[in-house]
Amino acid sequence: MTTPPTTYNNIDTSRDQSIGALTTLLTQATDALAQGGPELAEHAVQLREMVSRPPRVAVVGRLKSGKSTLVNALTQHEIAATGSLECTMAVSMYFNGAPARAEIHSRSGEVKRIPLSEGPLEELGFPLEDVDHIEQFLPNAQLQRLTLIDTPGTATLTVENEERTRRVLVDGQQDTKRASSWADSLVFLSDSAPREDERLFLSQLGMTPLTSVGVLSRADSFGAGAFGQRDPLDYAATHAENIAAQLGNSVLEVVPLSGFLAESALVGRVNGTIARTLGHLASLNREQLLDVIEVEDPSVIVPGLSAHMRDELLDTVGEYGIVAARDIAAAEGAVGLVNWMIERSGISRLTQLLTGEMSYFAVLQRAVRMLDVLDQLAGANINTEHVRWVQSVTLSQPGMHFVLLYRSYRNTYAATPDSRLLAPLRAAIEATSAAEVVGLSRTASPNQVRAELEQRLGEMQQLAMGLLSAAEDEARERLVVAYQAALRSLG
């Protein structure tokens, strides 16, 4: 019997009210847009699906960086193919839904449906070069909060792999009739800092640092690995901090992750037998452990431990788990082992990011993209007067304040990534109090907050006299509005 996780409750619901209110507002706007005639109704269907679905996270990285393993860990289900090479070479989208099935979309528009049983999709039904993307549906509680896009990779061994990713994630952004498939946030997996070609690709996805998180993959093998003098996960954490410093403010955070430990714990591979076998190794020193892993017959070191049992341990917890978790298994059994693997792997922190603040920023991202589409439709002479009316009513709603701030942040980041306005914009977007709008603690006194807000307003007035890009000038105006609103809230 496998052991389910008992402490994987790292879902952040603090932003749910804001997400719900903004989602309702955007849904009402798409319903209003649909009343403008058949052509607008077609666009409204795509926009409505985009704004009403759970935030969609694109998982991007090099070939064999652990993307599908991460998808399995996040869904707590072996849904992503890790063994079928052909299936890992196509873009796959994962949704909560029943019955369990895969829908393979060809580039010509044909759709082939394949029922899914317990395991992942193993064959495409179309030649790989004819596949646009795959949509997979599974009754899954984790997918109720996040939908996922697993990609074949960037800077991979074949140009075709990157082209498939680019066609769906980059080129697809230009087609408003595919708005429902757009990604809202991004996870980039790598074992080092992104290369220049990868940075360029990531910049073309239209994300911001608030909707992008880096993952330092295979963290349990860093340095000299499990038998090195330094714990590889601790080493990976230091390396992640260094990469975050190199990237500046281009990602929200860099998380060290052992996808293997996370997947193994969360898809139910750990059971009482595994925990007992591992616990029997608790009394061994590191040299003896190394011998257990390397010798043909480990029973000469641990009586009763067969080669099959040893190999099963390696397939479930790996060398790092054998070295670092044997005491946990001996003392706390399967439940303690699973919980240790979840927390130590880094998946808990990554999930907290994706379901918390990043989830809120993802909704701001999609709201801005909806405003972009309305601008495009207004310029396309498709019942322009109706589109302008929808724009006007939507923008007049109080809930759009943070959307407009985020739009300025996105545009400024794209045009001037080293702009001094990015930090104050980010503070204003993340703020939940007047003090936080200007980067002060919530415990700051009203007089301190007022003085800081007035100083910032003065700085914004001075900036108006200098040379600013168009995006920066709009950002300055949005910050003035934010600071004035914060002053009014102080009374």
TrEMBL record:
<feature type="domain" description="Dynamin N-terminal">
    <location>
        <begin position="57"/>
        <end position="168"/>
    </location>
</feature>
<dbReference type="Pfam" id="PF00350">
    <property type="entry name" value="Dynamin_N"/>
</dbReference>
<dbReference type="InterPro" id="IPR045063">
    <property type="entry name" value="Dynamin_N"/>
</dbReference>
<dbReference type="InterPro" id="IPR027417">
    <property type="entry name" value="P-loop_NTPase"/>
</dbReference>
<protein>
    <submittedName>
        <fullName>50S ribosome-binding GTPase</fullName>
    </submittedName>
</protein>
